[in-house]
Amino acid sequence: MSADDRLVAVTGATGRQGSAVTRHLLRDGWRVRALTRTPDSDRARALTDLGADVVRADFDEPDTLRAAFRDAHGVYSVQNPMTSSIDAEIRHGIAVADAARDAGVSHVVYGSAGTGASGTGVGSWDSKLAIEAHMRRLGLPLTVLRPMAFMELMTDRDYYPPVSTWHVMPKLMGADRPVVWLSVDDLGAIAALAFAEPSRFIGAALTLVADVQSIDDCRAIWRDVTGKPPRRFPMPVWLFERIVGTDLTTMWRWLRTATIPTDTSETLRILPTAVTVRQWLSAQQTPRASHPA
Q1: Tally: H helices and E strands in the chain
Q2: Is residue 233 part of a domain?
Q3: Rounded Cα distance, 280 and 275, in Å
Q4: Tens of pLDDT along the chain (293 residues)?
Q5: Order of strands, edge to edge, in the sheet holding 142-147?
Q6: Is residue 279 part of a domain?
Q7: Domains held by the chain: number
């Protein structure tokens, strides 16, 4: 592949996944066309400073997607139902797939989630299966990446971990149940590897697991690393659902009895440097990580 061909369009480029993928692609020598609805935002300007070509594109405006994918070798596709809705996520994922097909893109890497199994009743997992199915019907050259729990759930203020990760999640799921973890940065690194080695990754659907730790285990690791327990803010489940909906609580209830993939070997074979929960928390030692709320 020539340098001129090394262009990847990244959707949701100012979000967690998109920005991580953008950073790793730029480090690996790719040209990146970073798609966002708000190219004048601080996050978008930060990507420009890194060397990305930031362009405006909107999932609800297919012409902007087709224009953004023109001449691109690859597309990284990710949608966030928490900022729209599950129905909108499906509509947006289909729009990206259709635009990638129309543009003749050579490789689509899809940021999915969950186990890849149907029938869980978890809306934000079922939606991704619907998008994957549409991509396959189109015959797109596809790689699917399926992380389940990002380590950022423990620290990122936007997830409000004192209520979610440290209270409602273990209450519904069980504090001693295994959780499969991956850092967002490692997802970005794996996506960049997928674009670099299409013959290895096209056709693959990868369940990504860098570490397996229960919430109780994570609390103990947090205490070892920081010298204090993570902050916890009890909230009734009904109130949590009123604020954020029922998708997460459905997921956590399902995980209480479900058997999930816990083998880390495939992920570590792809990315031997993928970090454990302890390594990740140790690297987060800032006031923000110590006081997640």
Answers
A1: 14, 10
A2: no
A3: 6
A4: 544 468 999 999 999 999 999 999 999 999 999 999 999 999 999 999 999 999 999 999 999 999 999 999 999 999 988 887 899 999 999 999 999 999 999 999 999 999 999 999 999 999 999 999 999 999 999 999 999 999 999 999 888 999 999 999 999 999 999 999 999 999 999 999 999 999 999 999 999 999 999 999 999 999 999 999 999 999 999 999 999 999 999 999 999 999 999 999 999 999 999 999 999 999 998 544 333 32
A5: 53-56, 31-36, 7-10, 74-77, 107-111, 142-147, 205-208
A6: no
A7: 1
**H-only helix segments in the chain:** 16-27, 42-50, 62-69, 86-103, 123-138, 169-173, 184-196, 198-201, 215-226, 237-244, 247-255, 265-270, 277-283, 287-290
On whether residue 122 sits in a domain, the answer given is yes
Q: What 3-state DSSP class applies to 11?
A: coil
Residue 36, H or E segment: strand 31-36
What are the Cα distances from residue 86, in Å, to 97, 123, 124, 126, 282? 17, 7, 6, 9, 34
Helix ranges, 139-197 (H): 169-173, 184-196
Could you tell me the residue range of the domain that residue 53 belongs to?
3-150+182-209+261-274
| 102 contacts 65 by C-beta, under 8 angstroms | no
> 34 near 47, Cβ under 8 Å?
yes
User: CA 237 from chain center: how many Å?
Assistant: 25
Is residue 230 one of the residues assigned to a domain?
no
Residue 192's CATH number = 3.40.50.720
* CA distances from residue 244 to 81, 156, 182 in whole angstroms, order as listed: 11, 16, 23
